[in-house]
Amino acid sequence: MCLLIVIGEKQMPGEKSDESSAQTHSTDQVQVRPEFDCNFVVLFRGEASTTEEDEYVAEFQNVGLQAIHIPVLTFEYKNLEQLEVYLQNSDRLSAIIFTSPRCVNAVEKALKNETKTKILKKMSEKFLFCVGVKTAKILEERLGLKSSLGEDQKLIGSKQDLSNYLIQHFSDKLKLPVFIPCSSLTDRSLVDTLETNHLQAISLHVYETLPDPNLAINIEKVLKNRGERIALYVFYSPSGVDSVLSNIDSFITHQDKYIAIGKTTAEHLIKRNRQVWCVSEKPTAKSLLQAVLKRFLE
């Protein structure tokens, strides 16, 4: 294996370090020698590169591992007039749940200039829940609204986390329906869990998830001339898995690895007959890097 990772390597008393033979890159308490020449990471994530994607690339580059982002999906927004009606009448709702940054984008697109301030004020008086720290951050940046979860937001990395949290902490506070703008690909798990626990929920599809039109071309550019390097494929969502797999079959080697962000994506990879090499529990760059380094140590 073309990799040597050292955790917590300490210098003995009186021992001199040999910087020339043990040059390292570090992340938290993990030190990784730059012997990644036989590996590289392919990040099959979302839309065209943003600051957030750059953070993933930077985390791997910090330990000497090349990472390449290939845009997988595009998004088309829909039912924005219906969405605006729900938001205008948010006094009839207990809460609004944002399951992804795209849901925040949809709300931003639905708001008209002449009514935006009034609607945002009404929304601010409701419980606002987000799946993921990134979604909460975008909610505040784009709409000036804060998640109602406060410091506990960092505990909510999936829809299941959120439903469990709401049932435990908010069941007696959500007397009116909970409104969930979501993707057309979203399953009913969140709605069903809430309703099973006697909480009313209304969902509205506000965007379509579509494959990036340049996906096949970009995959070929990256994988066709990689030589004998081993690819670590990182998938962020089930829809990303479906979009990518049919395009990479002709480039896969038996040594390539499949990495999932979250359990739902991991389960979907398994359904598609792919062996999951490791899973990042949280949708963050640091969590992903830690999962990869831990797996290399095993």
UniProtKB/TrEMBL annotation:
Keywords: Heme biosynthesis, Lyase, Porphyrin biosynthesis. Pathway: Porphyrin-containing compound metabolism; protoporphyrin-IX biosynthesis; coproporphyrinogen-III from 5-aminolevulinate: step 3/4. GO terms for molecular function: uroporphyrinogen-III synthase activity. Its EC number is 4.2.1.75. Pfam families: HEM4 (PF02602). It comes from the Eukaryota. It catalyses: hydroxymethylbilane = uroporphyrinogen III + H2O. It is an enzyme of class 4 (lyase). Residues 54-290 form the Tetrapyrrole biosynthesis uroporphyrinogen III synthase domain. Belongs to the uroporphyrinogen-III synthase family. Catalyzes cyclization of the linear tetrapyrrole, hydroxymethylbilane, to the macrocyclic uroporphyrinogen III, the branch point for the various sub-pathways leading to the wide diversity of porphyrins. Porphyrins act as cofactors for a multitude of enzymes that perform a variety of processes within the cell such as methionine synthesis (vitamin B12) or oxygen transport (heme). This is Uroporphyrinogen-III synthase. It comes from Dinothrombium tinctorium.
